[in-house]
């Protein structure tokens, strides 16, 4: 029997979420257009001029937003994708923008509905599907903590997915007010999957990007990695991992700027030692994060260059993730029911990173599924 493959980074929009976005009149929202066979998810302020033009002229091109294929919304499509790529188990999570846009009055009930829906999907396919819950971070703290308790009570929940903005007001993940959330997650044994969404300001990419000419390319390809790096560095600088030693964090997209983790944090630690006059606290944190292992239990999903991540944190801190349904097959005659190069490329990357020795095969098995089975408590379920 081949070793198990566990996909820790795979997204879905449940029907309840699709209905919510379709009913909205402000971003984020879903719209359909006569010239497109698929509905489109519109997220970015820079897409509003295109939305206005396409609303006024049904045949206007280009269209705003991201096309939502059945791979975003259909559980049978997700299962077919898993079967096509020999994926044993997937941990489903809501894709951005999660629930960050909701008012405090409705966020808790919608989080309950979304997480219950995910749980039902997983229960229908025991052993194949688990999920990471969405939290109502715009709601008052007691409601967020209640949502964590509810998520932890669902038998197929193994963590939560978080953006980088933090609580209502967007003060970030180094905001002292969010510490009770991290403490509750640690106490419940739920892993926090840190995922980018907000990127960088449109002005960074220039007026043409701000006008929507470049679509999602610049915010995703450049903004996302920087966003993740900045967010987790702020957590490190603020002492979040010292304050909540039981907090476990999974970083999306290979941990973003991996070279920064190796070189940049040495610089950060040196500056901390200087600023705090005496070096003990800064140097202590530096040793715990840059000494060859992240003893704060930070994991990287394997959706970018594997070898660099292995060299940085070791094979025991890396998990396989496809980021499905993003990066589908492209080009003339592309078949989204066929092999996705975004997955096949990651599999090749793992094989190339570890080689064909017995030790290498053991490392590859750990990355492809063994680590996730242990960390997410999937054994025997």
TrEMBL record:
Q: Which domain of life is it from?
A: Eukaryota
Amidohydrolase-related domain location: 102-378
Which GO annotations describe the biological process of this protein? secondary metabolic process
Q: Which GO terms describe its molecular function?
A: carboxy-lyase activity; hydrolase activity
Q: Which UniProt keywords apply?
A: Decarboxylase, Lyase
Cited InterPro entries: ACMSD (IPR032465), Amidohydro-rel (IPR006680), Metal_Hydrolase (IPR032466)
Pfam families linked: Amidohydro_2
GO CC field? cytosol
**UniProt similarity note:** Belongs to the metallo-dependent hydrolases superfamily.
Q: What is this protein called?
A: Amidohydrolase-related domain-containing protein
Source species, please?
A: Schizothecium vesticola
